Amino acid sequence: MSKVATKHNDLKDKLVSSFLAFEETVDIDSPIHDIRIEAIKAFENQGFPTKRMEAWKYTSLNSILKHNYSVFPKVENALEYPKVKKYFVHDIDSYKIVFVDGKYSSHLSETTHDGIDVCLMSAALTKPKYRLVIDKYFNKVAEKDGMASLNTAFSNEGAYIHIPKNKVVAKPIQIIHFATGSESALMLQPRNLIVAEENSHVQIIERHQSLTENPVLTNSVTEIFANKRAIVDYYKLQNDKESASLIDNTYVSQKQESVARVHTFSFGGKLTRNNLNYYQNGERIDSTLKGVTIIGNKQHVDHHTLVHHIEPNCESHQDYKGIYGDAATGVFNGKVIVEKEAQKTNAFQANNNILLSDKSSINTKPQLEIFADDVKCSHGCTIGQLDESALFYMRSRGIPEKEARALLMYAFSNDVLETVKIPELKQRVTKLIAQKLGVNIGFDL
Fold first, then answer.
1. Confidence tier at 43 by pLDDT (50, 70, 90)
2. Contact at 8 Å (CB) between 353 and 316?
3. Residue 167, Cα to own-chain centre: how many angstroms?
4. Is 398 exposed, middle or buried, given 0-12, 13-18 or 19+ CB atoms closer than 10 A?
5. pTM of this prediction?
6. Of the chain's two ends, which shows fewer C-beta atoms within 10 Å, N or C?
């Protein structure tokens, strides 16, 4: 057995044995007790994904699974707001659900039960008043693969958001996870459940932020349910340290006439894998998946998407842009499935990439599986460098080369920013893009 396989097995064995200790700390009468037991068995059988699996062909976890991760931090660290203020979208009024090393931070958070529930998964799993929602929705759409099952087995903490019928949440909700470095290496397993009932509307911003150079691995699962005519806007801001890695599993189940949009901004971290899966269970559903990736050094970002069109008269729109410098690697693997019954489907998928150096690379694999005959479906990908003729034109108008390149890259990523519904977040992302491109531009997109 290779050293790599041995490391994988050591970590796997540690996690399985840690589960026994974890079980003793949580309520054995929990509504998800049996689900956890099944999940750890599934993880034990499947283990960590490897490049031998088609879905992980271009992404190896070897470099991040070699650490001896702590699963339960021994020290509780408190954070003061001024120290971490910059990681919040702080120029908006918002609800906040904040975790430090996997533990809820009450003084950094602002939750509510005033007509809506914006609170903790740990509370929802233990209090009888949440039982109906947990029984109906928890683990109903998440996959049963190795990483998702590992998260399910250790499910205890994260965000629980339930928006009743006809409620429009007055302000956005921020979910932020901090890692402080109190452990030499830390694994976090946050679990989020978002349920938007009929005619409700919610906006959510999610961020995972390491404050340490110590290795941090976050294996996150989020289940989103958009019921009839609900609108869910979900924004993922990924701009972490190069000592931190994220495996993000997000599952979106939609009912008729609902709108669900997920925007993913990937600007940092050592390895980031975004598994984003949409299931359309009704007619006249609108699904949007958009992303901007700008990375350098040896960073790696993998977007793995699925949109499953099951019923007729629905739309999906995917648009992912990538800018890769130095020895960075990008992956886009997008699948659209259109079932035989899903006539009049309109599905669009695009992945466009710019490589800024000879050592950067992108593996892109758009896929369509269409079993209906009356559909509009398109997909395409591009890989190239900046448009030299446009660059020449701008330089001939007196714009320095560095600024001209940055402007072209701004224009390249602007399609994704156009659909961001929170102006302050759009402004924040614009500034982050400027920072990543190393230029100061005096306007906001």
1. very high
2. no
3. 25
4. exposed
5. 0.95
6. N
